[in-house]
Specification:
The protein is an alpha/beta fold. The protein has two domains: about 10-165 and about 335-350, Glycogen Phosphorylase B (Rossmann fold); about 170-335, Glycogen Phosphorylase B (Rossmann fold, 3-Layer(aba) Sandwich), CATH 3.40.50. The protein is about 35% helix and about 20% strand. It has twelve helices and 13 strands. The chain has helices at about 20-30, 65-75, 90-95, 115-130, 140-150, 195-205, 240-250, 265-270, 285-290, 305-315, 320-335, 340-350; strands spanning about 10-15, 35-40, 55-60, 80-85, 105-110, 135-140, 160, 180-185, 215-220, 235, 255, 275-280, 295-300. The strands form two sheets. The chain has a seven-stranded parallel sheet, with helices on both faces. A six-stranded parallel sheet has the order 10-9-8-11-12-13, with helices on both faces. Helix 1 (about 20-30) packs across helix 12, helix 2 crosses helix 3 and helix 8 packs across helix 11. The protein is elongated and about 70 Å long. It starts with 7 loop residues before the first strand and ends with a helix.
């Protein structure tokens, strides 16, 4: 690409990379951005293998011993905008406080507002010490917008659509309803994902049905050794993205029963492939990609047997009903895309 065209330099002070965020970065290149990214190592519980685009400048977080080192990088590349991933990294926050850095400073936040004591105290602290240092905030969706307002950002300075699935890979062209009776879960094997309740409910419901379903679970984590072993439950372990798309295509329903899920890009991936869904009301992305009795069901862990009853109801639907829900999922999936992500990036930068 002509250097004159690629004139918009951005620096992302990031944490863990993911396939979907890398795809977003790559799309930024196509509209003239020069992208620099400081990132953390890959999570052992989600060891994705990435092919890093050589046109993106990547830096290992461990190579920067202090905020002064990061500041040196900023002086060298002179980005027009710096995107800071939350407040977990104190060196990243110190960059924000450096008044000599004239770049736009954008906070990226994916935590939803839960009204906890800590969040209320932090919101007051942030308003007093950090709010004036940021130009705006970029969040995934509505659950985070409420938090952004608590942090002191006005409506015009809050941008949504921070996370989007890779529309090129996750799309409905591979999915066909064969009524194979397969429920799919994708995620880490940890308690907050609601896996134990999923396994127990599935085994209980399936035992009452003449025509059995299968439950496919993809992922790994500290619950792996405690996984339920049942003839109708298949544990794939962790799989790379290419294999995952094939598994999704062979499933009929996606379930994400998380007890805490700030966003959950996997839900966007599944609706983009036309899957009916069963999700808990604690999944942040359900605000955008799930509607009760339209493209699936939303349940609450707080309501006795709500998870089980809605799971059973979904498993008893006809092929035609599931196909209809799948089409509704596709419609909902289009509310956020890689194109909208790039448009927002441009709007923030300009």
């Amino acid at each position: 690409m002509n250097q004159k065209i690629r004139s918009k330099k951005v620096l992302f002070l990031f944490t863990e990379l993911s396939g979907y965020i890398l795809n977003s970065f790559e799309n930024a290149l196509s509209v003239g951005f020069e992208v620099h990214v400081i990132n953390y190592p890959v999570n052992n519980q989600a060891p994705f293998k990435f092919i890093k685009n050589n046109n993106i400048f990547f830096y290992e977080r461990s190579d920067f011993k202090s905020s002064c080192d990061i500041n040196t990088l900023i002086i060298n590349i002179k980005p027009g905008a710096i995107f800071i991933s939350g407040w977990i990294d104190k060196d990243y926050l110190n960059i924000v406080k450096n008044s000599s850095i004239k770049s736009k400073k954008i906070l990226m936040l994916d935590n939803p507002w839960r009204g906890t004591l800590f969040q209320n105290i932090w919101a007051l602290y942030f308003n007093f010490f950090y709010k004036s240092k940021f130009d705006c905030i970029w969040v995934p969706g509505k659950p985070q917008t409420k938090y952004a307002k608590k942090l002191g950002f006005k409506k015009d300075y809050i941008f949504e659509g921070l996370y989007t699935c890779n529309n090129r890979i996750f799309n409905s062209t591979l999915s066909k309803f064969k009524k194979s009776k397969v429920i799919l879960f994708v995620g880490r094997y940890v308690k907050e994902k609601g896996l134990e309740e999923l396994w127990q409910n599935f085994v209980s419901i399936n035992s009452t049905l003449d025509s059995k379903w299968q439950l496919w679970c993809v992922g790994t984590g500290n619950l792996w050794n405690d996984r339920i072993k049942d003839s109708n439950i298949k544990h794939f372990g962790f799989v790379q993205q290419e294999k995952l798309v094939e598994i999704i295509a062979g499933s009929d329903i996606y379930v994400l029963p998380s007890k805490y899920e700030p966003w959950g890009v996997s839900l966007h991936e599944m609706v983009s492939m036309g899957k009916p869904v069963l999700v808990s009301d604690k999944v942040g992305s359900s605000y955008s990609f799930a509607k009760n009795d339209v493209n699936g069901f939303i349940f609450s862990h707080k309501k006795t047997n709500d998870f089980k009853s809605k799971m059973k109801k979904l498993m008893k639907l006809s092929k035609e009903d599931l196909e209809k829900m799948g089409k509704e999922s596709l419609n909902l999936s289009k509310s956020i895309s890689t194109n909208s992500w790039v448009k927002t990036l441009n709007k923030i930068y300009d």
